[in-house]
Structures are given as C-alpha cells and as structure tokens.
Amino acid sequence: MAVQGKSLTATSLPRSALLLTVAAAVAVSFSLAAAYIGLSQARSQPPQPSAAEELAARNQRIAFFEDRVAADEADFVSLNILAGQYLQRARETSDLADYGRADVAASRSLALLPDDNYQGTVALAAVRLSQHDFRAALELSERAVAIKPSRASGYGAKGDALSNLGRYAEAGLAYETMLELEPGLPALSRLAGLAFIEGDLLNAEDFWRQAIERSAGLPAENGAWARVQLGELYLGQGDTANAARQFRAALGSKPGSAMPKPGLRASGLRRGAWTTRSCFIRASSPAVRTSTT
User: Fold this and answer.
1) Among positive and negative, which fits the CA dihedral 227, 229, 233, 236?
2) Spatial contact of 129 and 157, defined as CB atoms under 8 Å apart
3) What one-character DSSP code corresponds to residue 238?
4) Cβ atoms of 95 and 89 closer than 8 Å
5) DSSP characters for 182-200?
6) Burial of 160 (0-12, 13-18, 19+ CB in 10 A)
7) Left if phi > 0, otherwise alpha if psi is -120 to 50, otherwise beta: which for 256?
8) CA distance linking residue 191 with residue 17, whole number of Å
9) At what angle do helices 152-164 and 134-147 cross, to 10 degrees?
10) How far is CA 75 from the centre of its chain?
C-alpha cells in the first residue's frame, strides 16, 4: 500500500506572536548596532592624557589667557577662565600662590562686570572657600545661584559654605539640587563627604563609588582624589585590602602624586603590617573643595 506523504504547509502565526517576533528582531538589530557604535567610538577615542600631560596643557592654557588679559585688561571672560585654571592647578600642584592668582583674576573680572557674571562669582566663592571665609563664600554662591539657577556649580559652592558653617541639612539640599542638574563626580563627592560627616558610612561609600565611576573626562586629579577619599573611608574601618586597592588605583591614575602615599604607609603596605595610626592626607582632602565644577 502506498504511503501517502505529508505535505508541508505554512502555518500562520497568531498576530500577537508575529508582533513579538518582529519586536525581538528589531531589538536585536538595535543592540547589535549600539554595540558596533560603542566599539567604533571606543576605537576612535584618544587615550586619556597622563597627569603630567594634563598639567603641561593647563600651563599652556594659563599662559595663553594671561597673554590675552595682558593685551586687553577688560577681557573678563579670559579672567574667569584664568581663575578656574588657577584653582585647578592649585589642587594638582598644592601651589598656594595659585589661590592668590585666582583671587586676583576673579576679583578683576567682577570689578569689570559685577552684576551678571556667573563664572566670576562662582570662582571667587571657590577662592573664599579655600581661604575659609565661609560667610563670604555663601553670599557669593547665593548670588551665583540667583544669576543662573540652572547651573550646578553655584549650588556646589553654596553647599560647601553651608556645610563648613555646620548647616548640614541646607547643604544637603544644595547638593541634591546640584546632583539633579549635573549627576557627576562634583555633586556625588560632596554628598559622600556630607554622608561621612553625618556618620552614614554606607551611603558615603556608595556615593564615592558612584563619583569614581563618573570621573571620565575630568582632570586626573579629580578621580585620584576621590579614590583617596574612598581609601581613607576603608582605612578608618580597618579594611586595609580595599584601602590598598583605592590608593594604588589613585597612584595609577595620577603617577608621581603624593596623595595616596601616606595612606599606603598607614595601611602597612610598605611594611607588611597594619598600623592603627589613621593618616589623613591634608594635601588631597582639604576641608573644602575649591574646584569651580
């Protein structure tokens, strides 16, 4: 008896299943495209400059804008840029003279344009913070916020002044606003510091970790500083292994820096034993942040 073969017929999928299949295919396509784009961008991005290269470039920028100000004493924009560059270089080199230079540049800028000069006002607030004149810093930062309430750095300076005046709840509100406007290392590091002051070590650690993760594109000193702070947090809790990792990572991101070395000594890494001496790194963890970011 002949066996009748089965004919293969196309089975129509339900409409819902068909839509799911198409959606899945589209999702895979987008995922592959995104991965390709990500790889292409990663290949095209230049390598991160070293700390020495960053400092050399900063010195060149400072020289360039100093020449511009010398040629045009009314160039308040160049004065504002100089103030910010001096402040960052002071953080990188611990040259206190740069704070004085920033003071002069920001003050000259505000003398030229006193009323609608956001960058000059924020820069001078940062200088006053470095001088521990916290009431003057608070007044300047409030003026900056009034000029441009949608800019983050004014809230950072305001929070720093409030925190150093012991007004922690108000500082927290300023930092939270800063985070909403610019969710990066400057805001997260401030929230980490405030959490530590309030004894909330769990959130302090989490904020420091987030700050480090968002340090890309910032000066190498910023990321190294954040790692030193996280290392100090671990060190204070006796967690020498994690402290060592952070101090070494800080040295790796900013070779030649003195910032992590006291922490490495304190964690016993150079002697092979833990010592109970807590070593806080004054050069890398001042009472206040002086960056205009």
Assistant:
1) positive
2) yes
3) T
4) yes
5) --SHHHHHHHHHHHHHTT-
6) buried
7) left
8) 48
9) 160
10) 28
How far apart CA 163 and CA 177 sit, in angstroms, is 15
What is the separation of C-alpha 266 from the centre of its chain, rounded to a whole number of angstroms?
26
91: exposed, middle or buried (Cβ count in 10 Å: 0-12, 13-18, 19+): buried
Apex 256 CA angle, 254 and 257, nearest 5: 65
Q: Which tokens hold the place of 219?
A: 């000066």
Q: Give the SS3 label for residue 61.
A: helix
pTM: 0.75
Structure token digits, residue 175:
């930092």
Q: Which of 67, 141, 79 is nearest to 110 (CA)?
A: 79
Per-residue pLDDT of the chain (293 residues; tens, 9 = 90+): 443 433 333 344 444 443 444 344 444 444 444 444 344 444 455 567 787 899 999 999 999 999 999 999 999 999 999 999 999 999 999 999 999 999 999 999 999 999 999 999 999 999 999 999 999 999 999 999 999 999 999 999 999 999 999 999 999 999 999 999 999 999 999 999 999 999 999 999 999 999 999 999 899 999 999 999 999 999 999 999 999 999 999 988 655 554 554 545 555 554 343 333 233 333 333 334 454 45
What are the Cα distances from residue 83, in Å, to 62, 155, 203?
9, 18, 33
pLDDT, residue 42, reads 42
3-state secondary structure of 278: coil
**Token pair for 81:** 């840029």
Both structure tokens of 160? 């720093």
Beta carbons of 227 and 235 less than 8 angstroms apart: no
How many whole angstroms from its chain centre is CA 256? 20
